[in-house]
Amino acid sequence: MAAPNKGRRQAGSPGRPGRTLALFLIAMVALTGGMFWSGHVTPRLGIDLAGGTSITLQAKNTPGKPNAINKTNMDTAVSIIERRVNGLGVSEAEVQTQGNENIIVNIPRGTNEKQAREQVGTTAQLYFRPVLTVAAGSPTTPQPSGSGSPSAAPSSSTSASTGDKADEKADEKAGDGSSPSPDASATAQGRAVTDALKADASPSPDASGSDSPSDKSSDKPSDKESGAPAPSASPSSDAATAALEKKFTELDCTNEKARTEVNQSAAPKDTIVACGQNSGGEWEKYVLGPAELEGTDVDDAKGVLDQQRGMWIVTMDFTGAGTKKFQSITGKLSQQQAPMNQFAIVLDGNVVSAPSVSQTLGGSAEISGSFTQQSAQDLGNILSYGALPLTFQEQSVTTVTAALGGEQLEAGLIAGAIGLALVIIYLVAYYRGLSAIAILSLGASGIMTYTIMSLLGPGIGFALNLPAVCGAIVAIGITADSFIVYFERIRDEIREGRTLRPAVERAWPRARRTILVSDFVSFLAAAVLFLVTVGKVQGFAFTLGLTTLLDVVVVFFFTKPVMTILARTKFFSSGHSWSGLDPKRLGAKPPLRRARRVSAPTDPKEA
After folding, report:
1. Which positions ≥6 away from 459 have C-beta within 8 Å?
2. What is the pLDDT of residues 283-333, one digit of tens each?
3. How many helices (H) and strands (E) does the chain have?
């Protein structure tokens, strides 16, 4: 007969409950200590409990796309805004549509509220456009002859120098005693726009937009050489050029409204006028050609510190198609003279950077300027999550108070306390001494839940809202149900005539299977609810799933070891009437003993 394996613990044996219980208590103390060490001793509250900011955004049609406001684009915008806000560490932010044109964004108090507000409505339409000409950002107005006129040339090395002859002609007119003439600088700016548009015209459709002059005009002498305007392909092209010259000349980039409205209705393939700040913080205005690259060609972007220059920049990596486009445009620009060897990085209509190109570049680029760490990281965050498919206008910003949520929270906590009290009364009345184990387990589960929620606030941005509180209250019943399953299994073993210590160990395998199946179903429901819902309902699902997992941990590592240890005490093992395990009250019968059978006599005489 084979000897039993001494190294293998037999089913139903008690194991080492003291060690298991000690490990659980050490983990609970460590979590509690970590909570106090982090300084976050209370869970972060959601907007319905702590208050915050509610922003209403109204969608506007994109130029050239009159029917852009539809369900698909609105849902895409909601998804992008939500990722942007959560990328800042703002959890429990609610982003949802209202009607056909509005998006409501609720940002809880105590988070990066200001940054989130700046980013939610930013369209982040990114374009790479070639620079045709550049000038100082102030407008140019007619002045009397003989008076000094401000220079239109920018202070940077990328300034345009195409208006010298026009300046001389204007000076001659100013000195001949005739009536007042327009400012020479305005003439120079207008002439610079015309020259740039003609220089930009080429046989390749990639290098010129549909609004550029015809290729035929490039074979004629320029107006700068002949003194007369060059013939254009059509009257409409002349009108468009004149309108662009006027817009460029009159544009005041120091005016915020003018900067916003100057190219609001422009399409990607249009030649536009835009504003931007140079490295010295001074405003400049640009004439920019059709977009060569778009934000969709950017694969990744992030704000980083350039150690060599000691400044914050935004680095961008392009997609495969974007890399080819970038190489093509930089190759063309590197053969041009300043300022036409520059490409402007235009974000939502404003030039954020206009670097010059001296050689063909590869699949990455950087945006440099007067960035702070925060502004560089914010721009990288916006570009990484993509541009919004629609333009949004901020309709209203409302501060949400926590008064109503506080009242609801108070009512919810009262309801939870009443429910917990009823559960305890039931346990004491029905299970008597066993109720002490259940109450201790509920307390351990409550401590674990509270500390983990407090740590998840700064860790992953978890915020406690009213539905999450409801999930925690529902979890009281789930946890109590696990204790009841185990206690009833123990009672069944005692009814069969077993003593307490073997009953505790034999009941555990059957109770364990039931508890795991029950908790798995609850966790699965919570996971599905979390995945298919948005907003506050996710808070309910997350809390329900978390407390379900903690129920398994508490039952396995606290309730079972405590029950094994207490089964060795006289109060429980003797079946005291208040222990909840009294065999008489449970209707247990003594175990049946087998009687020795007497064999019948085979000899009739002995019978």
Report:
1. none
2. 888 999 898 888 778 888 888 888 888 888 888 888 888 888 888 888 888
3. 19, 13
pTM above 0.85, yes or no: no
CA 524 vs CA 161, 299, 436, 494, 516: distances in Å: 70, 35, 30, 34, 12
Q: Structure tokens of 368?
A: 């440099």
131, with CB counted inside 10 A (0-12, 13-18, 19+), is buried
**DSSP codes, 290-341:** --SEEGGGEEEEEEEEETTTTEEEEEEEE-HHHHHHHHHHHHHHTTSPTTTT
Decide: helix, strand or coil at residue 217: helix
Residue 71 CA to residue 54 CA, distance in Å, equals 22
Angle formed at CA 40 by CA 34 and CA 46, multiple of 5 degrees: 130
With a CB cutoff of 8 Å and minimum separation 6, the contacts of 157 are: 338, 356
CA distance 595 to 523: 51
Which secondary-structure segment (H or E) carries 182? none
How far apart, in whole angstroms, are the C-alpha atoms of residue 176 and residue 56? Answer: 60
Which letter, b or e, does each residue of 375-395 get, where b requires 16 or more Cβ atoms within 10 Å of its Cβ? Answer: bbbbbbbbbbbbbbbbbbeee
Q: Return d(Cα 262, Cα 211) in angstroms, integer.
A: 17
Place of tokens 């240890």: 565
Per-residue pLDDT of 392-448, as tens digits, reads: 888 888 777 766 566 777 777 788 788 888 888 988 888 888 889 989 998 999 899
